[in-house]
Amino acid sequence: MEITKRVALVAHDNCKKDLAEWVEWNWKLLLSHKLICTGTTGRLVEETILKNLEKGQSLKHSIVKLKSGPFGGDQQLGAMIAEGQIDLLIFFWDPMQPHPHDVDVKALLRISVLYNIPTACNRSTADFIISSQLMSDRYAQKLTDYSEYIDRSLPTL
Known about the structure:
alpha/beta; Rossmann fold; 43% helix; 12% strand
C-alpha cells in the first residue's frame, strides 16, 4: 500500500448518520486519501467534507461514487478489492436490520478477508484504523497464497 490509501466507505441506511459523524470527525485525515463510496453514502461523505473545508481549500482527490449497494455497489467494491484497487474498507452495516442484498454484503466482507484488506464494521474499529500510524506510511500487505487450495479443488480430466 502506498502512503495515499484508497478507502472504501459504505453505510447502510440506519448507519449513514453514524458514518457522517465519523467522516465529520476525521475529514482532515480523509482528505489526503482517495475515497470510494457506494450510492448515497458517496454524496453524504462529499457533502460532509465540503461543508468542513476552509475557504480556498478543495478536495485533493475526487470522491468516486459507485452504484447503491442493492443495485450492485457492494459487488463493484468487491471487484475493486479483487483487482487491488481498494486498500481498506470502512463498512458501517446494520446488524439488526435484514437487507435484500445480504448475500452481497456477506460476499463483500468475505472478499475483504480473502484479500487481507483492513475492514472496520463499526465506529470503534474505524477509529483505530484511521488513527493508526500505518494510515500515513507505506505498508507491505501480506497476501495468502491460495494456489494450493485452488489446484486441489480443480476436477481432474
